[in-house]
Structure formats: structure tokens, C-alpha cells
User: Fold these one by one.
Assistant:
Number 1:
Amino acid sequence: MNTLHTFGCSHTESYETTTISLLYQSYYDWRGGNFPKVWSTILGEKLNMNVVNHGWASSTNQEITNSVNKRAHTFKKGDIVIIQWSYAHRFTWIDQHNNEWQKMGVNNPIKKIIHEQTFMDMIDFVTHQLYCDLIYKFEPMIEHLANVVGFDVYYWSTEGKIIHSLPDKVKNQRKYLIPSDFERDTIHGNAFNQIIKNGGEFIFNETNFEVNDMHLGEKGHKVQADMFYNHIRF
């Protein structure tokens, strides 16, 4: 049996494996002691494939690229690889006191290891369109490997400046999943706009705001899996 390999941040990661969202426990309780299947699990079942989900909460795009590189040797002929590009404002920074990398982002400034002005300058830098466009320099490498090995690779993004901002003739290539028009004022990412338009819901909608979490809920993951399946198979 072939394998579906998925990479990304918390919008790809399984509910059960995340380490950052305390709201997931509230969601688990609200549902009566269970989590729904995430889109990768549903898609794997529809494709009759094993699923290896490498999603990792709060991942930067650099970390996602590194994760793909680290595991590329496991991709086999007939497999499918789906890479989710995350939010542009996320970056990693060295904590020199502890000699380790720390995740940073708009909602996660670690003041003890970075000066406030440096943090703001980095946000401006990593969210610049030219920096976001560096993503497209990685894609040809994984696509060359896909051609050599014989697996299929697809991309989607929760960041409006990645894929969604490309010219129509570029973003409508088959390798890109659910691209939409570029909307700078969206808070969820353009991919989610398309999922919601097709009947999906976020957790806060599903729970009538009893759990104020902006990840997809059960219906959202089902819709996303269906959209991906229809794109891949038809």
C-alpha cells in the first residue's frame, strides 16, 4: 500500500499530537471525549493509502522545508506528498542562553532572547513578498525528486502571500491545491475561505463559540479532504 505524506503546521497536524493548544482539550470535552479525523486521515482513507502526518504546530516554513528534506528518502513510487506552507510571520531565532532554536511569530515574541525592535524588524523582513517568494525556489527540487522516484507532490498554503498571490496562470497549476483570489484582509488564510464557502466550519463555529479556536472542526476537515480528493483524482 502506498503512503500519503503530509507536512505543515497545526492546520495539518492531528488533534491528538499537538502540544500547544489547550483549547483542544475543551474541544475534546465538548465533543464528549473524542476528536474528529483530520483532513489527512480522511483523505488517506479515500485514497486507500497509509498516512504519515508530519504536521507540527507553529512550524515556520523553514522548519517545514527541513522536515521534507529530512524525510524525502522515505518517499516511494506511487506515494503522494502534500506540503502546507504556513504563515509568513513565523520565524526561528537562536536562544543563545540555552543554545537552542525558538519559534517566533506575531503572537509569540520571546522578549528575553530578542529585542523588541529586532523582533519587529524581523516580522517586516519575513513577511515581505520577496522573502515569501523564496518558497518557490524549493519546490523545483522536490518536484525533480518526485519525477525521478515517481511520487506526486502538491502544495497548499494558509498564508495569503504564498500561492494565493500568484498570477492566475501560475497558481492554477495542478500542483497547487485550493488556490483562491488574493485577499489581504483575511485572518484565516485564503485556503480556508474556499473551505468555508464549500460548507466547512471552524471549531468556534461548530461549538457555537463555546470553544474559541480558529482551527477547522469536523465538518471543515471533511470538506478539505473532499476538495483535495477531487483535485487529486479528477
Number 2:
Amino acid sequence: MKAAKTGEFEIIDRIITEINKVKPGEWNTLISGIGDDAALIKTRSRYQVATTDCLIENVHFEKNFLDWTALGWKALAINLSDIAAMGGTPKYALVSLALPPDTDVENVVKLYRGMLELAKDTGTVIAGGNISRASEIGIHTTIVGEVPARSKVLLRSKAKKGDLIAVTGRLGAAAGGLKTLVHSLHPSRNDAEALIKAFWYPQPRIEVGKVLVKSGIRCGMDISDGLVADLGHILEMSNVGATIEAERIPVHPSVAVLGFDGLELALAGGEDYELLFTGKMEAIEKVAAEACCPVTIIGEITRGKGKLEILDIKGNIMPIENGGWRHF
């Protein structure tokens, strides 16, 4: 049945039913959730972190390749990744939906099922939200989390000259997945499945973020706009420069087969939602020993605010033709 026929409140009732089946996270701290004007939450005395992000039709995805369950997962995942990038623990989420009147209510339920699967895995309470009519689909998510102390948090402004630069996981797959979905890339069947999964189902590195903080890392962020663009944010905020070695960049195997094009996707493709961080060798080795994913050193922090050099295998400086994702 379409949203225009059921009405807002029946959709909300369906959403409440799905949430009550799962009740993810510290549910007993949610005193009053969906149904009131705002969520009432009992909290402990800790430092909180909050983030918000959105997925918009024809900007982040197209209806012709839309997977509603995957969209729900991704809408929550990209915000959880921001919490991970601070070294925090997610607690509560607020979700605001913008839906065309002809949206099938069952698709909204699928969206919440995808979201709740990840909410359960990460202990995140979906505490409330809103639904509005719109000409295109939009999912706006806000997450509130905690960090253990003011000094135990990851910030973009804490990189120091001489720090090594490292990343988690493999890069470029999500961008390759998008190109596969819009038919501008034609990988093998197995590679296509891996790339599309990377696009729809990013894995927020929440536990790794905590390991970073515990290991003494103080500078970090997630890779959403692309490695080059996001490293540039660190360099600007920390008043430093950087040199990275192209051959060290961990390109995802399903895009590595593309050769140089694969490297470009890893450098500037975006939406990997891996963690990018800087620190001393000893601290990075501690992270690598405990992390649930690969950790790769790709370069070093240098002098010169905002100056980024990418070296090829011969040590020559490579041109940076694509600086990453930009909304405008």
C-alpha cells in the first residue's frame, strides 16, 4: 500500500512495530521515544559526541538501482562511521524520512529492517524521528554517542610532523560499486558483487576507533569524500603537510585489477568509510595487532600547511587530478 493512502501515523506505527521487535542498544535508558515530541534519555556523566548526515535520491543513489534494506543499513552506517572516527560509542539515533506520496509502505519497513540490523550489531537505540512528504526520497540521520574523556578522542587537528599516516581496510570499492550500478564500470560477476556490497553496506569501524584511542592515537577521521580530500582536511586543521606513497595504498582487490584507474578510485572515489589516522609507529603497531581489519601505513606527516605529495614507485610526484567528492 502507498504512503499517500495509509497516512503518516500508520507508517509510524509500522516503524514502531519493527523497532520493538529488536530493541537495540541500551533500551532501558530510553525513557520515552517515538510518540512524544522528543526522546527522553537517561544518561551518565560522560562527554557526548553527535553527528548528522543524509542520503538523498539522485545525489547519493538513484531509484533505478535502489535497494531499500541496503539503504537503511547505509543511512545508519555513514553516521556510525562519524562516531567511530571520534573514537566514540554510539548510543541513540534519530531518523527523519522524506518520502514521495507513492512510496510503498513495505519499502519503508524494509528500510527500517536494514537500519535495525546494524543498530542491533552496534548497540544503537533508534529513539525517534520524523516523516515528511517530499518529491524525492531523503533519509536524514542524527546519532548521539559518548567518549570516555575529553583527552581520549580523535580529532583532525592533532597530526604532528613526523607522525606516520595509516588507513584501515581496503579503498576504492564503494566508488567502484557505484560505477558498476550506473553501468560505467563492467567488472566480472564476482567483482561486481563485492563492489556493489561495498557501496551499499559500509562497515563502520566503531571498535577500531576505540582501539585507536586506547593505543594513544589522537588524530583521525573517516574516509567519506576520498582519501585525498579527507587527508587534506587533516592537513589544514593540523597546519601540516604530508607525503604518501601510491604503491602502499591498500586498493581493494576488485578495483586493483583496473590498474591505475583502481588507484584513482582509492585516492578520490569516496564512501569507503574506513578510518584515516596519524601517529607514532609504536601506537600504530598496537592498533594493527588488535584491529579486526588490515591496517596499512601509507605515508608521513611533513611541514607545510595543506601541502600533499603523492609519490609513485620511482619517487616522482604524481599529479592530483581529482581531489575527491564535492557536493557543489
Number 3:
Amino acid sequence: MSVRRALIPLVLALVAAGCSDERQPTAQPPAQAPHFLRWAGAPQFTTGDSPSSRSADGVLVPSRSDGISLNQYTAAFWAVRGQPRSVQINYLSATGDTTFPFLRLATDDPAFVPGRGDLEPGDSVLITVTIDRDNIKVSLEPSGLQFGSPAELQIWYGGADGDLNGDGAVDDADGYIEGQLLGMWYREDAESAWTQVPATHSLSDKSFISALQHFCEWAVSW
């Protein structure tokens, strides 16, 4: 009886290992969520390319589509297959007298819309950019939109004001994060894991540029 009891933990361990291998053939631990950069203060966003999403003074208005939160802002524009279209979103300084770039999205070849199918030259699709006012993170819709020629997304992270680890101080740790760890990340949906993607990092601009083949959620993280 004592021998059987001693074998039980070993059998359970082997069964657990077998299930884990079946779900994850590489037997790697699940990836942790990245460290999102946080906005310093409460930014206000402006754009000159989406009048339908702006108030009379050009400031982006909160999105009320989910009926839950007012800390997400949206901008929208029509992308046309075969025509260059873009949107740039800026943010205002705390004093409201200086504008800094936050996001630029440019495309000329939206090719496939889920639920609608392939787009012909001249066909258009409404693209919506939703900004997270807590983290330097955006959602691009319609989700699953695919491009023939990649779209280009540029995100500036200067809005974190140098405090990249969120500890309240700008120091050597933040410099290391910026130079060695920081990158562009994406995930397909809320159930998917975040994954780092190739991107061009400009330290002088404090921005990343990445080519997009399809839409999802994007963030500057480490």
C-alpha cells in the first residue's frame, strides 16, 4: 500500500506533462503579457483627418460604443483600394499649447474584409483607430482586415515622458529598457497572447514603424 501511495504523485505528474505537451508541443511555459508603457498624465488627442470623430475644436471625442468606459478615443477614415489614404493622431501637452505625434497609419491596398470578402480597386472600407488612454496601445478595426501591400503603422512613445517602467523616476533603468527591450507588440484578440513583431526603432524620434498585413491590437511594450 505504501508503494502504491508513493507512485500516485509520479503518475499524476506524468499525466500532467503529457497533457501539457499535447497543448504545447514545444513544452514552453506560456508567454507573459508585456509591460505596457503608460501615458504620463491624461492626454488629449487631435487629428485633422477624421472630422466625423472630432468635436468642433478638433479634439477627439470619447467612444461610447461599448457603453462602459470613456477612457478610449476613436478616429476613423475611409481606406480605398488603389488610393493612398492615411490618418495621423497627435496628442496635446498638459498645458494644451504644444502638439506631439502619437500615431500615423497609411495604406493604399486594403484587400479583404471579413464577412464581406475581397475588395476590388476603388472599393472602400471604414477603418477605425481606438486609443487606450491609460496605455500606449491601440486597436485597429475592422478586425481581420487584410492588405495586398502592407499598411504602415508608426507609433510614437514620447507620451510616456521617459518613465518606461512606471516607477515614477526617469533613470538608467529606463534607458536600458528603451535601448534593449522596447518593441512593437500585437495580439489578434482578447483571448490571444501578445507577440513582438519586427519594427524599425528610431531613438531620436521615440517611435516604431511596422508593416501591417492585417488588423488587430498593437502596443509599444517591453
Number 4:
Amino acid sequence: MAYIDDPTTQKANLSFIKASMRTPLLSRDREFELARRWREGGDTAALHELVRAYARLVIATAGRFRSYGLPIGDLVQEGSVGLMQAAARFEPERDVRFSTYAAWWIRSAMQDYVLRNWSIVRTGTTAAQKSLFFNLRRLRARIDEMSGTPLSEAGRRKIAIALKVDVAEVESMDMRLGAADQSLNAPLGTGEEDWQDFLADGRPSPEDVVIGLHDGATRSRWLSEALGELNPRERRIINDRRLREVGATLEELGRALGVSKERVRQLEHRAMLKLRQSMCRRTDRPADLLVEAG
């Protein structure tokens, strides 16, 4: 659905557009002069003249993004940010017209804005997804696939080849663009239940939490007892190497203990073997000592 501005906003947008279209374009020499003055001397007046002259480029680009249903004023603002970024990075010595250079920055700024605001769910996070988001409808029309219906297998393959993406990504984006956002608080049918009432709770059950706390305490007690079986030097190596957020290096421990780093490595290996054997003696099922990653 297209966004409709209120009358005051529409009037302000129209006034800005008219003023921008009346601003004369710059010659190559003039825009290079302004770019140099801004880049080398920080001349804000030169920057303003350069940006005002190409505000019409922002407006033209915003018109191509109106089909995404976002406020034209916001698109122009985002494009103006891109125009300012282009002015800050433009290098006149490369002998490229500023309008050519700025067009990429303007389009990129608007694309990022559309992706952030088209849906409450982030739509395009990878290069392939962004390419699909902005080109899928156009390619659909080119291969005579009607909008609103699922793409055929042949259509998905053609689009995947054209954009150099996986067929699965084409199918996923086609489904995403064909579905509107829905609130989880929306009622389900005529009953009192909402969609969120049927979401599975992925958190552990109270029983699992209690069992996990009990098992964790038991493992901690066993580990403390196993550490007590090591000699002082082995215990220090394990503590400094394994039980700290930022473990000491072999070289650091070697200097502290007056041995080589290879000797520290050997002592660490022997201490770990002792700990493993000690822990395994305390249970009939050693596999229970392993904790699955959450």
C-alpha cells in the first residue's frame, strides 16, 4: 500500500522539488572547482552549491522507489544523505562527473532505507537477497510470470541464472514479497485465540532447569575435587590456562615457572589427563559429563 502524506507535508515536498528543479546544473569545470574547494579547504558554501545543483538527481531517484509505498519525503532525505556522502568522497582528479559518482551513493542510501522500512521483518541482509528484492518483480514481468502467483520452477531457474543466486533464495524471496506482515496479536478465526497462542515455547521446562542446576553443581564439585588431586604446579597451569577468561600463554607460564614452553605444554597435557580420569571415576556414564551447547 502506498503511503499518503498529509497536505502540509505534500506542500512542503512540492515546494522543495520545484526549488530543486529551478537550480541550474553545473559545468564540469565548476563542479570540479567546488569539489576541490570543499575537499581541500572545507568551504561549506562550495559544498552547499554543489549539493543544491544535484538535488534534482535525488528527486529523480526517489521517484523510482515510490512503488515500495514509503514516504517520498523520507526517500528524498535519505538520498540527500547519500549525496552528502558522495560530496565528501568525490575525487575531482579522477575525471568523472560528480553526477555519475553521486548517483551510486544516492541509490545505495535509498535502497538501505527501503530494506529497513519496507517491512518490520528485515528483508535483505545478504547481497543476493538485496539483488532479489529490487529485481524480482522486473524479472517476473520479463518472463511473463504474473505477480501474485507463485513462480514456476522454470521461472525460478531463469531468475536465479540472471541474478547469479541460488534457486532456493529466489523461491524464499518470492514468498516473502508475496506475503504481507501480520500481527501475532491478530485473532485466529472467530475464536478468542491469537496467533501467538499457538507459538511453541522454546525455553527449557522447569524440570529441565532444576535438573540442569543440579547437574551443574555436581560437575563443579567433582571438578574441584579433581583439581585437588593435582600437584601445585599442575594446578597453577590449569587455573591460568583453562579457568580464566583470558588464559596465559605457554611462554608466560614458562617464564613464571622457570621452564620451557614445551615443558609447560607437557605438564598441561598430563594435568588434563589426570582431571579426565578423575572425573570419569565419579560416574558410570562419562557421557553425562558433556554439556550440550545451547
